[in-house]
From TrEMBL:
Tagged with keyword Zinc-finger: no
Matches recorded under Pfam families: AIRC
PANTHER family hit by this protein: PHOSPHORIBOSYLAMINOIMIDAZOLE CARBOXYLASE, PHOSPHORIBOSYLAMINOIMIDAZOLE CARBOXYLASE CATALYTIC SUBUNIT
EC number per UniProt: 5.4.99.18
Protein name in the entry: N5-carboxyaminoimidazole ribonucleotide mutase
Functional description taken from the UniProt entry: Catalyzes the conversion of N5-carboxyaminoimidazole ribonucleotide (N5-CAIR) to 4-carboxy-5-aminoimidazole ribonucleotide (CAIR).
Annotated GO MF terms: 5-(carboxyamino)imidazole ribonucleotide mutase activity; phosphoribosylaminoimidazole carboxylase activity
Length: 162
């Protein structure tokens, strides 16, 4: 049987997947099971509501939500669940993701969304942050995270090559 997913990765559109795949990839590398879905605040509001309300009961511990433009998805999900929500601003065509960033980051006090950087770096870091949150109660995952970080440090040369 497949491992129960503790992290849900949701995104507003299929067009967000090339960005959000970076989140799924890092979590796969860290052996964290994920549940990936398209859930749009604007186009599928009922699906968004049902997902957010059911997530805790399905064993989800952290939600990563990516969206672009008028990016209401992370904030609306955060309004519907007490689970930690990490928001990834997807780089939009019109405003290069600045619209996405401001839509996600400016939450009112009391409804938090942990907002990451625009684009792929934000998606990767959302995955790492989700893993760090889970690692608090998972010693094996803590070990894998430390190994991953050490490998990144070891890969940095002392001096630049010609
Ligand atoms: C948002 O609108 C999505 O998150 C996506 O980033 C953006 C554009 O969506 P598409 O028109 O490409 O489906 O809801």
């Amino acid at each position: 049987m497949a491992e129960q997913a503790k992290v849900a990765i949701v995104m507003g559109s299929q067009s967000d997947w090339p960005t959000m795949k970076h989140c799924a990839d890092i979590l796969e590398e860290l052996e964290v099971a994920v549940d990936v879905r398209i859930v749009s605040a604007h186009r599928t509001p009922d699906r968004m509501y049902d997902f957010a309300r059911a997530a805790e009961g399905e064993g989800i511990a952290v939600i990563v939500a990516g969206a672009g433009g008028a990016a209401h998805l992370p904030g609306m999900i955060a309004a519907l669940t007490h689970l930690p929500v990490l928001g990834v601003p997807v780089q939009s065509r019109a405003l290069s993701g600045q619209d996405s960033l401001l839509s996600i980051v400016q939450m009112p006090a009391g409804v938090p969304v942990g907002t990451l950087a625009i684009g792929e770096a934000g998606a990767t870091n959302a995955g790492l942050l989700a893993a760090s949150i889970l690692a608090g109660s998972d010693a094996a995952l803590t070990g894998r995270l430390k190994t991953w970080r050490q490998a990144r440090s070891d890969a940095v040369a002392e001096r630049p090559e010609e």
